[in-house]
């Protein structure tokens, strides 16, 4: 067996450590690109699939191109410097392109392909360097094992640590800095073989990335200021979504993943129409379950009724419920509903809460985001409604927001059809009673809701809380009338195995806004 040259063992260890580090950085870039694509373009399953496919294909191209690199060590160092620049500035470039031009696909996928090609070159080049420095008993599978362990570390750290602590902008720059650190240490470890030009470009890239990191909060502020018309009073990337609250004078808006959730100027129309008809029709209102509605507006409407004793609110993101509970100016929008002792908050997945709970409710109010991806579509599926109806009392009522019967007509009627097709636990073999209705909300346009119950509620005059601003006998009567261009159409029930609703939703909105 040949002995390794002096210093080869130290260099071998460093190259294996570098393999781990570059694997972490490479997967983080891929996850950042996929998350950005999902945030800005919607349909997370489609976007994640595209990003993963494009990135892996680009890595394959990079692995092939590595054979044309004459000097493996210098090629590896150049790859790290370029990854530090292109990967590090991936999120800033995409955010700014979207904010100022509305373009996402070209900068996102252009940078993704470049990063993928450079990432694909790393492992073949490291393997060649290890052979060239005379590592005894070199085995390529050792390099791959370290690479896969790095990928695992990145996939675990991204949702648990990186996004909550850094956000996408800072994370992109930080891992660009990691690639530059790998380049710098490699330059020093192999300083006899390094090029002077590499030192110069590396130093410039390090200064540029460092400046970006120092100014990352300002970069985020400038990018978001271009995205939103109003002043941003709160912005945070949580493990679940991008949460942004804006204000202009006395007008406040909430955005989740850059999609508007409410405008304080007209939100009362939406929330009154979501909550009050079901509350008025219910024979009992003692215990109410709200799924979603972390801003507390639906809870505010429920608490207008004096006979409500307990409200259970289930919202996935604890940061949303926290800010609308603890920030006085935001809590004022929901009249302090989340501070009311009758309200119990569970920060939990709605499906898990319904599936594993056992309590019965007089009303269930579903105020969840639109079904624009499979993760949300499952909460509008027949399987979910089958679970949910078991949590209703025999005379209970549930109601869901169902999107726009004008902009996404098929999606709205699919929700109605799916609710009706859910299992009736009281009248076995029969469909649920359903009542679709809609109202005009200026921020959203014509917006729809669907009520469902095992029994049709008794036909009687309805009473309303005294201080409502929109719902009345007249508006409720009008809400149940659909015009020819919004009326019922033949659609499929939304099933877990098919998710027809996602297609209806995306196609409907694409007709108007793409």
Describe the structure.
- The radius of gyration is 27 Å and the shape is elongated.
- It is built from 18 helices and eleven strands.
- With 514 residues, the chain is of the alpha/beta class.
- It has a seven-stranded mixed beta sheet. The chain has a four-stranded antiparallel beta sheet with strand order 1-2-3-4.
The largest beta-sheet arranges its strands as 7-6-5-8-9-11-10
Can you give the helix content as a percent range? 40-55%
Number of strands: 11
- The N- and C-terminal alpha carbons lie at a distance of 66 Å
Dominant shape: elongated
**What class would the helix/strand composition place it in?**
alpha/beta
Largest sheet: 7 strands, mixed
H and E string: HHHHHHHHEEEEHEHEHHEHEHHEHEEHH
Cα radius of gyration in angstroms: 27 Å
Low-confidence segments: 1-6
Mean pLDDT score: 88
Q: What portion of residues belong to β-strands?
A: 5-15%
Number of helical runs?
A: 18
Topology record:
Elements: H1 8-41, H2 44-65, H3 72-86, H4 90-101, H5 105-132, H6 140-189, H7 196-214, H8 216-227, E1 231-237, E2 242-248, E3 251-256, E4 259-263, H9 267-281, E5 287-292, H10 297-302, E6 310-314, H11 318-326, H12 328-331, E7 343-346, H13 350-356, E8 361-367, H14 374-377, H15 382-389, E9 392-403, H16 409-421, E10 433-441, E11 445-453, H17 473-479, H18 500-513
Parallel strand pairs: 5-6, 5-8, 6-7, 8-9
Antiparallel strand pairs: 1-2, 2-3, 3-4, 9-11, 10-11
């Amino acid at each position: 067996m040949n002995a390794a040259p002096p210093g080869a063992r130290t260099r071998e260890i460093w190259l294996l450590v570098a393999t781990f580090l570059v694997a972490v950085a490479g997967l983080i870039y891929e996850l950042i690109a996929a998350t950005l694509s999902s945030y800005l373009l919607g349909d997370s399953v489609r976007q994640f699939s595209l990003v993963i496919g494009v990135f892996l294909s680009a890595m394959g191209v990079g692995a092939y191109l590595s054979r044309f690199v004459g000097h493996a060590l210098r090629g590896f160092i150049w790859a790290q410097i370029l990854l530090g620049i292109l990967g590090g500035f991936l999120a800033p470039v995409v955010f700014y392109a979207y904010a100022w031009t509305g373009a996402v696909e070209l900068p996102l996928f252009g940078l993704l392909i470049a990063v993928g090609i450079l990432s694909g070159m790393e492992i073949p080049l490291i393997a060649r360097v290890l052979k060239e420095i005379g590592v005894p008993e070199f085995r390529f599978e050792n390099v791959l094992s370290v690479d896969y362990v790095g990928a695992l570390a990145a996939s675990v750290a991204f949702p648990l640590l990186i996004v909550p602590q850094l956000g996408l902008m800072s994370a992109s720059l930080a891992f660009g800095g990691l690639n530059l650190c790998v380049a710098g240490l490699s330059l020093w470890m192999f300083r006899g073989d390094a090029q002077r030009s590499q030192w110069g470009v590396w130093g410039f890239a390090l200064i540029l990335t460092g400046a970006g990191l120092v100014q990352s909060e300002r970069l985020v502020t400038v990018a978001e200021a271009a995205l939103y018309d109003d002043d941003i009073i709160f912005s945070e990337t949580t493990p679940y979504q991008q949460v942004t609250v804006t204000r202009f004078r006395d007008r406040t808006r909430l955005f989740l993943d850059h999609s508007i959730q409410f405008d304080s100027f007209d939100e009362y129309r939406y929330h009154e129409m979501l909550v009050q008809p079901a509350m008025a029709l219910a024979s009992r209102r003692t215990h109410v379950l709200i799924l979603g509605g972390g801003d507390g507006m639906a809870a505010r409407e429920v608490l207008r009724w004096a006979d409500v004793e307990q409200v259970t609110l289930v919202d996935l993101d604890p940061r949303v419920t926290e800010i609308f509970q603890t920030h006085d100016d935001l809590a004022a929008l929901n009249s302090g509903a989340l501070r009311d002792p009758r309200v119990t908050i569970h920060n939990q997945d709605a499906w898990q809460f319904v599936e594993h709970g056992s309590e019965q409710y007089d009303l269930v109010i579903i105020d969840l985001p639109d079904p624009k991806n499979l993760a949300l579509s499952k909460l509008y599926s027949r399987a979910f409604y089958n679970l949910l109806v078991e949590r209703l009392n025999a005379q209970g009522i549930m109601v869901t927001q169902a999107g726009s019967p004008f902009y996404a007509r098929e999606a709205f009627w699919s929700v109605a059809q799916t609710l009706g097709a859910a299992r009736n636990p009281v009248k076995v073999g029969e469909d649920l009673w359903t009542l679709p209705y809609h109202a005009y909300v200026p921020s959203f346009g014509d917006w729809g809701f669907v009520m469902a119950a095992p029994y049709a509620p008794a036909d009687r005059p309805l009473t309303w809380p005294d201080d409502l601003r929109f719902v009345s006998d007249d508006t409720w009567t009008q809400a149940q009338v659909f015009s020819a261009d919004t009326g019922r159409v033949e659609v499929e029930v939304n099933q877990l195995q098919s998710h027809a609703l996602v297609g209806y939703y995306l196609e409907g909105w694409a007709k108007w806004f793409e």
